[in-house]
Amino acid sequence: MIPSGARRERDLLTPEGVPLRFTLAGAGDRLGAFLIDLTFVSISSAVLGVAMTTVLIGRDAFDHLVVAAILLASFLLRSFYFMWFEIRWQGQTPGKRLLGIRVIDAAGGPLTPQAVIARNLLRDVEFFLPLSLVVAPQMVWPGAPAWAAELAALWAVALALLPLFNADRLRPGDLVGGTLVVLAPRALLLDDLGAHMVAERAMPRPSAHAFTDEQLDVYGIYELQTLEAVLRRGTGEANREALGAVAERIQRKISWEASGKPEAYWFLRDFYAALRARLESRMLLGKRRESKAPAPR
Amino acid sequence: MSALSRRDFVTATVAGGLALAESLVFPGRHTRLRNLALRGREAGVVVVGAVAMFLIAGCIEGVFRQLVHSTPIRYAVALSSAAVWTLYFTRAGRKA
Q1: Interface test with A, best of B24, B35, B48 (most A CBs within 10 A)
Q2: Which pLDDT score, from 0 to 100, does residue A35 have?
């Protein structure tokens, strides 16, 4: 049985032949993003309308002009809001950015303005047109029969449910634009251990330990990363023992002349910083040391 | 002029729709979905162009025709916009 997480993963091959793995955005995320964007559009339309009305209210002759201007402005706003942001923000609208999803090209290429335009034009057919037929049938279709609104509602619901009935969660706009909507979570970077960490400011700092190049050359990248994992677990009671054991082992390995027993955490922190500096400066010359094992010839 | 151009914009939009239908009925070398995506992008650009033209046509219909009643000026505007369109379709764009 396939775990439920893998069902939503898609591998795309870019035109350069690089495989990229994406996770499809869920229906809830997409609905939420759309509702957020819809709220933004409605609020700005309302603000625009109120502003125009207050400016032009005194002149009775311009009443119809005000209505026309508001209609035109809200049309431009709702038509180009999605296109503008998806083109400028690399496939994200404010709603999509808030919920951590974005639009990508389904074939693995760059997301072109043409694709964004096509997928958002269909939004009119999917949502805004049926909505206006439901809310104000006489404006769209003068003399509309009563069943027109029900038919439009049915149409909108059927199209809105379409993403639930295909494997790639495509809405009609995605089909025509050739796009996918995927998760784009914000990357969280950990504190840099080599630099001073926030949590350490309060701790008493003993004098720094110094290491010779020969002592540092004992270890490689693999050991550095293992040491980092141990250090990241912190100085709590649970980790105290592990820190002590690791420090002792390293001291034995590099034949550290103990002038008094150094505090394990700070010894390891200094060793980590020195080892990383050593490995990184060697890398500048193209010399990469994978681990403490001698490099295969 | 504006009545004529309005019909043309509808024609352009319908042509976009026909291109979509053709992409599904005669998919050619690609899969139907991929072909729909390729033609859909072209059709989308056509429709946005039509929207821009509708906007201009709407201004001509809604403002110009209501305010200007002199027949010679109307003819002048019609002929000049016809000239602009002719130049646009014959001169603008990439060389083949």
Answers
A1: B48
A2: 94
8 Å CB contact of A114 and B33 = no
Coil, helix or strand at residue A259: coil
Indicate whether this complex's ipTM tops 0.90. no
Domain total in chain A: 2
Q: Give the bridge partners for A19, in sequence order.
A: A13
Contact A247, A262 (CB under 8 A): yes
Is residue A30 located within the same domain as residue A100? yes
> Is B39 inside a domain boundary?
yes
Percent of chain B scoring above 90 in pLDDT: 5
- Predicted TM-score (pTM) above 0.80: no
For A160, other C-beta atoms within 10 Å of its C-beta total 17
* Same domain assignment for residues A168 and A250: no
Q: Which residues of A touch B61 (CB under 8 A)?
A: none
CA A26 to chain centre: 14
- % helix / strand / coil in chain A, to the nearest 5? 60, 5, 35
Q: State the Cα–Cα distance between residues B8 and A162, nearest whole angstrom.
A: 33
Condensed to tens digits (0 to 9), the pLDDT of residues B53-92 reads 888 888 888 778 888 888 898 899 889 989 988 998 888 8
| Largest distance between two CA atoms of chain B | 56
Cα–Cα distance between A281 and B73 in angstroms, integer? Answer: 79
